[in-house]
Specification:
Layout: H1 31-52, H2 59-81, H3 84-91, H4 94-119, H5 123-143, H6 151-171, H7 176-194, H8 199-223, H9 234-258, H10 263-269, H11 272-284, H12 291-323
Length: 324
Protein backbone atom coordinates (compact mmCIF):
# COMPACT_ATOMS: atom_id res chain seq x y z
CA UNK A 1 0.00 0.00 0.00
CA UNK A 2 1.39 3.37 -0.97
CA UNK A 3 2.06 6.00 1.64
CA UNK A 4 -0.85 8.39 2.32
CA UNK A 5 -0.51 11.72 0.52
CA UNK A 6 -2.32 13.75 3.17
CA UNK A 7 -2.36 13.84 6.96
CA UNK A 8 -5.99 14.11 8.03
CA UNK A 9 -5.14 15.16 11.59
CA UNK A 10 -2.70 17.92 10.76
CA UNK A 11 -4.26 18.96 7.47
CA UNK A 12 -0.84 19.23 5.79
CA UNK A 13 0.80 17.56 2.84
CA UNK A 14 4.30 16.12 3.23
CA UNK A 15 6.90 18.73 2.43
CA UNK A 16 4.59 21.74 2.86
CA UNK A 17 4.92 24.09 5.80
CA UNK A 18 1.77 25.28 7.53
CA UNK A 19 0.26 28.13 5.58
CA UNK A 20 2.33 27.57 2.46
CA UNK A 21 0.45 27.29 -0.85
CA UNK A 22 0.31 24.10 -2.92
CA UNK A 23 3.09 23.79 -5.44
CA UNK A 24 0.60 24.16 -8.29
CA UNK A 25 -0.48 27.69 -7.23
CA UNK A 26 1.12 30.72 -8.75
CA UNK A 27 1.09 32.94 -11.80
CA UNK A 28 1.85 30.12 -14.25
CA UNK A 29 -0.71 27.30 -13.85
CA UNK A 30 -0.19 24.18 -15.92
CA UNK A 31 -2.37 23.18 -18.85
CA UNK A 32 -3.68 20.14 -17.01
CA UNK A 33 -5.43 22.42 -14.55
CA UNK A 34 -7.27 24.19 -17.35
CA UNK A 35 -8.18 20.89 -19.02
CA UNK A 36 -9.49 19.47 -15.74
CA UNK A 37 -11.58 22.58 -15.02
CA UNK A 38 -13.04 22.76 -18.53
CA UNK A 39 -13.86 19.04 -18.50
CA UNK A 40 -15.57 19.25 -15.10
CA UNK A 41 -17.69 22.27 -15.98
CA UNK A 42 -18.70 20.89 -19.38
CA UNK A 43 -19.80 17.61 -17.76
CA UNK A 44 -21.78 19.49 -15.11
CA UNK A 45 -23.30 21.63 -17.85
CA UNK A 46 -24.67 18.55 -19.64
CA UNK A 47 -26.12 16.95 -16.50
CA UNK A 48 -29.67 18.26 -17.18
CA UNK A 49 -29.80 16.31 -20.44
CA UNK A 50 -28.34 13.25 -18.70
CA UNK A 51 -30.86 13.24 -15.85
CA UNK A 52 -33.69 14.12 -18.21
CA UNK A 53 -33.15 10.64 -19.66
CA UNK A 54 -33.99 9.28 -16.17
CA UNK A 55 -37.38 10.97 -15.89
CA UNK A 56 -39.18 7.66 -15.37
CA UNK A 57 -37.11 7.04 -12.21
CA UNK A 58 -38.35 8.80 -9.03
CA UNK A 59 -35.88 11.52 -7.90
CA UNK A 60 -35.11 9.85 -4.56
CA UNK A 61 -34.16 6.62 -6.33
CA UNK A 62 -31.90 8.56 -8.70
CA UNK A 63 -30.09 10.15 -5.74
CA UNK A 64 -29.84 6.78 -3.95
CA UNK A 65 -28.23 5.16 -7.00
CA UNK A 66 -25.96 8.18 -7.44
CA UNK A 67 -24.71 7.81 -3.86
CA UNK A 68 -24.31 4.03 -3.88
CA UNK A 69 -22.48 3.80 -7.20
CA UNK A 70 -20.30 6.79 -6.30
CA UNK A 71 -19.09 4.93 -3.22
CA UNK A 72 -18.30 1.79 -5.23
CA UNK A 73 -16.38 3.79 -7.83
CA UNK A 74 -14.44 5.89 -5.30
CA UNK A 75 -13.44 2.89 -3.16
CA UNK A 76 -12.16 0.98 -6.20
CA UNK A 77 -10.33 4.08 -7.42
CA UNK A 78 -8.70 4.69 -4.04
CA UNK A 79 -7.67 1.04 -3.80
CA UNK A 80 -5.75 1.17 -7.07
CA UNK A 81 -4.23 4.54 -6.08
CA UNK A 82 -3.15 3.12 -2.74
CA UNK A 83 -5.07 5.75 -0.79
CA UNK A 84 -7.47 3.72 1.36
CA UNK A 85 -5.28 4.58 4.34
CA UNK A 86 -6.55 8.16 4.13
CA UNK A 87 -10.10 6.94 4.55
CA UNK A 88 -9.12 4.92 7.63
CA UNK A 89 -7.42 8.00 9.12
CA UNK A 90 -10.52 10.11 8.49
CA UNK A 91 -12.77 7.58 10.24
CA UNK A 92 -10.74 7.96 13.45
CA UNK A 93 -11.10 11.76 13.51
CA UNK A 94 -14.43 12.74 15.08
CA UNK A 95 -14.24 16.36 13.93
CA UNK A 96 -13.70 15.32 10.31
CA UNK A 97 -16.55 12.79 10.46
CA UNK A 98 -19.01 15.35 11.89
CA UNK A 99 -18.10 18.01 9.32
CA UNK A 100 -18.31 15.56 6.44
CA UNK A 101 -21.70 14.39 7.73
CA UNK A 102 -22.83 18.01 7.43
CA UNK A 103 -21.39 18.37 3.93
CA UNK A 104 -22.99 15.06 2.92
CA UNK A 105 -26.41 16.33 4.02
CA UNK A 106 -25.90 19.58 2.10
CA UNK A 107 -24.82 17.91 -1.14
CA UNK A 108 -27.77 15.50 -0.85
CA UNK A 109 -30.17 18.45 -0.70
CA UNK A 110 -28.39 19.97 -3.71
CA UNK A 111 -28.56 16.78 -5.78
CA UNK A 112 -32.20 16.11 -4.90
CA UNK A 113 -33.27 19.66 -5.75
CA UNK A 114 -31.37 19.54 -9.05
CA UNK A 115 -32.93 16.21 -10.09
CA UNK A 116 -36.37 17.44 -9.00
CA UNK A 117 -35.95 20.58 -11.10
CA UNK A 118 -34.93 18.58 -14.16
CA UNK A 119 -37.79 16.10 -13.68
CA UNK A 120 -40.34 18.93 -13.47
CA UNK A 121 -39.13 20.90 -16.49
CA UNK A 122 -37.36 23.67 -14.55
CA UNK A 123 -33.80 23.34 -15.84
CA UNK A 124 -33.57 27.08 -16.50
CA UNK A 125 -34.28 27.75 -12.82
CA UNK A 126 -31.69 25.18 -11.72
CA UNK A 127 -29.09 26.96 -13.85
CA UNK A 128 -30.04 30.22 -12.13
CA UNK A 129 -29.13 28.56 -8.83
CA UNK A 130 -25.58 27.92 -9.96
CA UNK A 131 -25.33 31.49 -11.30
CA UNK A 132 -26.35 32.84 -7.88
CA UNK A 133 -24.07 30.43 -5.97
CA UNK A 134 -20.85 32.50 -6.18
CA UNK A 135 -22.66 35.51 -4.72
CA UNK A 136 -23.87 33.36 -1.83
CA UNK A 137 -20.21 32.48 -1.28
CA UNK A 138 -19.53 36.20 -0.99
CA UNK A 139 -22.24 36.62 1.63
CA UNK A 140 -20.88 33.68 3.60
CA UNK A 141 -17.46 35.29 3.54
CA UNK A 142 -18.88 38.59 4.84
CA UNK A 143 -21.18 37.14 7.51
CA UNK A 144 -19.15 34.16 8.74
CA UNK A 145 -15.54 35.06 7.96
CA UNK A 146 -15.96 38.84 8.46
CA UNK A 147 -14.46 39.58 5.06
CA UNK A 148 -14.76 43.08 3.59
CA UNK A 149 -16.16 43.93 0.17
CA UNK A 150 -15.27 46.78 -2.13
CA UNK A 151 -18.02 49.19 -3.23
CA UNK A 152 -18.11 47.48 -6.64
CA UNK A 153 -18.61 44.09 -5.00
CA UNK A 154 -21.42 45.44 -2.81
CA UNK A 155 -23.03 46.87 -5.93
CA UNK A 156 -22.94 43.48 -7.66
CA UNK A 157 -24.48 41.78 -4.61
CA UNK A 158 -27.25 44.42 -4.58
CA UNK A 159 -27.95 43.94 -8.29
CA UNK A 160 -28.23 40.19 -7.88
CA UNK A 161 -30.57 40.63 -4.91
CA UNK A 162 -32.78 42.92 -6.99
CA UNK A 163 -32.77 40.34 -9.79
CA UNK A 164 -33.97 37.59 -7.44
CA UNK A 165 -36.58 39.94 -5.96
CA UNK A 166 -37.84 40.79 -9.45
CA UNK A 167 -38.14 37.11 -10.42
CA UNK A 168 -40.02 36.52 -7.18
CA UNK A 169 -42.43 39.34 -8.03
CA UNK A 170 -43.22 38.27 -11.60
CA UNK A 171 -43.70 34.61 -10.68
CA UNK A 172 -45.68 35.34 -7.48
CA UNK A 173 -43.32 33.20 -5.45
CA UNK A 174 -39.69 32.69 -4.53
CA UNK A 175 -37.54 30.84 -7.10
CA UNK A 176 -37.02 28.24 -4.38
CA UNK A 177 -35.28 25.69 -6.61
CA UNK A 178 -32.60 28.21 -7.61
CA UNK A 179 -32.15 29.50 -4.07
CA UNK A 180 -31.98 25.99 -2.56
CA UNK A 181 -29.37 24.92 -5.11
CA UNK A 182 -27.33 28.09 -4.57
CA UNK A 183 -27.38 28.00 -0.77
CA UNK A 184 -26.83 24.24 -0.43
CA UNK A 185 -23.89 24.13 -2.84
CA UNK A 186 -22.27 27.26 -1.38
CA UNK A 187 -22.59 25.94 2.17
CA UNK A 188 -21.26 22.57 0.98
CA UNK A 189 -18.20 24.25 -0.51
CA UNK A 190 -17.69 26.27 2.67
CA UNK A 191 -17.80 23.16 4.89
CA UNK A 192 -15.41 21.26 2.60
CA UNK A 193 -13.06 24.24 2.67
CA UNK A 194 -12.58 23.96 6.42
CA UNK A 195 -12.29 20.15 6.56
CA UNK A 196 -8.66 19.03 6.54
CA UNK A 197 -8.97 16.19 4.05
CA UNK A 198 -8.29 15.70 0.36
CA UNK A 199 -11.08 15.59 -2.22
CA UNK A 200 -11.13 11.84 -2.95
CA UNK A 201 -11.15 10.48 0.64
CA UNK A 202 -13.55 13.29 1.57
CA UNK A 203 -15.94 12.22 -1.17
CA UNK A 204 -15.54 8.60 -0.05
CA UNK A 205 -16.49 9.58 3.51
CA UNK A 206 -19.53 11.55 2.37
CA UNK A 207 -20.87 8.73 0.24
CA UNK A 208 -20.05 6.21 2.98
CA UNK A 209 -22.18 8.24 5.41
CA UNK A 210 -25.07 8.46 2.94
CA UNK A 211 -24.94 4.90 1.58
CA UNK A 212 -26.91 3.22 4.42
CA UNK A 213 -29.80 5.62 3.77
CA UNK A 214 -29.48 5.16 0.01
CA UNK A 215 -29.46 1.37 0.21
CA UNK A 216 -32.33 1.40 2.69
CA UNK A 217 -34.44 3.47 0.30
CA UNK A 218 -33.59 1.25 -2.68
CA UNK A 219 -34.46 -1.90 -0.72
CA UNK A 220 -37.73 -0.36 0.46
CA UNK A 221 -38.60 0.69 -3.10
CA UNK A 222 -37.92 -2.81 -4.35
CA UNK A 223 -40.01 -4.35 -1.59
CA UNK A 224 -42.92 -2.04 -2.48
CA UNK A 225 -42.64 -2.98 -6.14
CA UNK A 226 -41.70 0.53 -7.31
CA UNK A 227 -37.99 -0.04 -7.86
CA UNK A 228 -36.67 0.96 -11.29
CA UNK A 229 -33.28 -0.76 -11.50
CA UNK A 230 -33.55 -4.05 -13.40
CA UNK A 231 -37.21 -3.50 -14.28
CA UNK A 232 -37.10 -1.26 -17.35
CA UNK A 233 -34.25 -1.83 -19.81
CA UNK A 234 -30.48 -2.15 -19.99
CA UNK A 235 -29.98 1.49 -21.03
CA UNK A 236 -31.71 2.77 -17.92
CA UNK A 237 -29.68 0.43 -15.72
CA UNK A 238 -26.47 1.64 -17.36
CA UNK A 239 -27.39 5.32 -16.83
CA UNK A 240 -28.15 4.74 -13.16
CA UNK A 241 -24.82 2.96 -12.61
CA UNK A 242 -22.90 5.59 -14.59
CA UNK A 243 -24.36 8.42 -12.50
CA UNK A 244 -22.02 7.41 -9.66
CA UNK A 245 -18.70 7.55 -11.54
CA UNK A 246 -19.84 10.70 -13.40
CA UNK A 247 -20.49 12.43 -10.08
CA UNK A 248 -17.29 11.31 -8.36
CA UNK A 249 -14.96 11.89 -11.30
CA UNK A 250 -16.31 15.40 -11.96
CA UNK A 251 -15.84 16.42 -8.32
CA UNK A 252 -12.29 15.08 -8.45
CA UNK A 253 -11.51 17.08 -11.61
CA UNK A 254 -12.85 20.22 -9.95
CA UNK A 255 -10.64 19.71 -6.90
CA UNK A 256 -7.62 18.98 -9.11
CA UNK A 257 -8.15 22.20 -11.06
CA UNK A 258 -8.79 24.32 -7.97
CA UNK A 259 -5.35 23.46 -6.60
CA UNK A 260 -3.57 24.40 -9.82
CA UNK A 261 -5.40 27.52 -10.99
CA UNK A 262 -5.86 30.90 -9.36
CA UNK A 263 -9.12 31.56 -7.52
CA UNK A 264 -10.23 34.20 -10.01
CA UNK A 265 -9.60 31.84 -12.93
CA UNK A 266 -11.70 29.08 -11.39
CA UNK A 267 -14.38 31.66 -10.55
CA UNK A 268 -14.66 32.73 -14.16
CA UNK A 269 -14.52 29.22 -15.61
CA UNK A 270 -17.25 27.91 -13.30
CA UNK A 271 -19.90 29.89 -15.19
CA UNK A 272 -19.47 27.44 -18.07
CA UNK A 273 -21.65 24.90 -16.24
CA UNK A 274 -24.78 27.01 -15.58
CA UNK A 275 -24.46 28.58 -19.03
CA UNK A 276 -24.60 25.14 -20.65
CA UNK A 277 -27.44 24.13 -18.32
CA UNK A 278 -29.38 27.24 -19.29
CA UNK A 279 -28.80 26.53 -23.00
CA UNK A 280 -29.83 22.90 -22.52
CA UNK A 281 -33.11 23.89 -20.89
CA UNK A 282 -33.84 26.48 -23.55
CA UNK A 283 -32.73 24.83 -26.80
CA UNK A 284 -32.68 21.07 -26.12
CA UNK A 285 -35.46 20.58 -23.57
CA UNK A 286 -37.47 23.53 -24.98
CA UNK A 287 -38.51 25.09 -21.68
CA UNK A 288 -40.54 28.34 -21.81
CA UNK A 289 -38.61 31.56 -21.19
CA UNK A 290 -40.45 34.86 -21.60
CA UNK A 291 -39.09 38.40 -21.85
CA UNK A 292 -40.20 39.31 -18.32
CA UNK A 293 -38.06 36.52 -16.84
CA UNK A 294 -35.18 37.51 -19.09
CA UNK A 295 -34.99 40.89 -17.34
CA UNK A 296 -34.35 39.20 -13.98
CA UNK A 297 -31.71 36.91 -15.46
CA UNK A 298 -29.94 39.84 -17.12
CA UNK A 299 -29.77 41.70 -13.80
CA UNK A 300 -28.14 38.67 -12.16
CA UNK A 301 -25.77 38.07 -15.08
CA UNK A 302 -24.72 41.74 -15.02
CA UNK A 303 -24.02 41.44 -11.29
CA UNK A 304 -21.85 38.38 -11.91
CA UNK A 305 -19.88 40.08 -14.69
CA UNK A 306 -19.33 43.11 -12.46
CA UNK A 307 -18.18 40.98 -9.54
CA UNK A 308 -15.94 38.78 -11.68
CA UNK A 309 -14.30 41.84 -13.25
CA UNK A 310 -13.63 43.32 -9.83
CA UNK A 311 -12.16 40.00 -8.69
CA UNK A 312 -9.76 39.96 -11.64
CA UNK A 313 -8.75 43.57 -10.93
CA UNK A 314 -8.02 42.84 -7.27
CA UNK A 315 -6.13 39.65 -8.15
CA UNK A 316 -3.88 41.52 -10.59
CA UNK A 317 -3.26 44.28 -8.06
CA UNK A 318 -2.21 41.73 -5.44
CA UNK A 319 0.07 39.87 -7.87
CA UNK A 320 1.76 43.02 -9.17
CA UNK A 321 4.16 43.48 -6.19
CA UNK A 322 5.05 39.78 -6.29
CA UNK A 323 5.80 39.93 -10.02
CA UNK A 324 7.88 43.08 -9.53
Amino acid sequence: MARSQFDVRSGQEPGLRAGSPPSGDGPAPDKRGYIAALTAFVIWGTFPVYFHALLQVPPLQVIAHRVAWSLVFVLVWMYFRGELGQLRDALTNRSVVLRLATSAALISVNWLTFVYGVAHGRVVETSLGYFIGPLVNVLLGVVVLRERLTPVQWTSVGMATLGVAYLTYITSGLPWIALTIAVSFSCYGFVRKVVKIEALPGLAMETLILTPLALGWLIWSEAKGVGSFGHVDAVLNFLLVLSGPATAFTLYLFSYAARRLSYSTVGLLQYIAPSLQFASGLFILHEPFDHARLIGFVMIWAALVLYAGEGVRLSRRQQAPVTA
